[in-house]
Amino acid sequence: MFSSRGYSLPMKRTVLLTLLLGLLFIEAGLLLSQNGTSMTPGLAWRLGFFILSPLTLAVLVGLRFRWAAMVCVIYATVGLAMDLATIIQVLNRDSDAVPSMTTSGISGFLNFLLIVFGGRSLLDVGQEPMPLKSPPPSPPSLS
After folding, report:
1. Any bridge partners for residue 44, and if so which?
2. For 110, which of 52, 58, 80, 125 is 20 to 30 Å away at the CA?
3. CA distances to 9, 33, 50, 64 from 128, in Å
4. Is the pTM of this model over 0.70?
């Protein structure tokens, strides 16, 4: 009934892969600019969530796993919530944190698009093109 593989062309893999790789580059740039080469205790979970998760999801989408679109939606929902929390925190601090706010805005937009296109891909998975209908039979000749 449920197969672990099974979507074909209706799922726009390239859109999901592009969004995941965009998130990967945005978050990797932010982590490297904030931390440089220093290793802090909180950096391990950030590397796992912001770097390894999109990379793993991109591999799963590339392998055409059917459930990968739903995992992308879940990941993007958590990421969007974190981006919105970061933007609100920056706005309440009244500090000049334009790079952090800009990066969170771009990341939030990519997460939103990942939710939209991942959900759309998930809904399109089971729908196959309808076969062409055969013409009705010819009436018998009365000769």
Report:
1. none
2. 125
3. 9, 46, 34, 16
4. yes
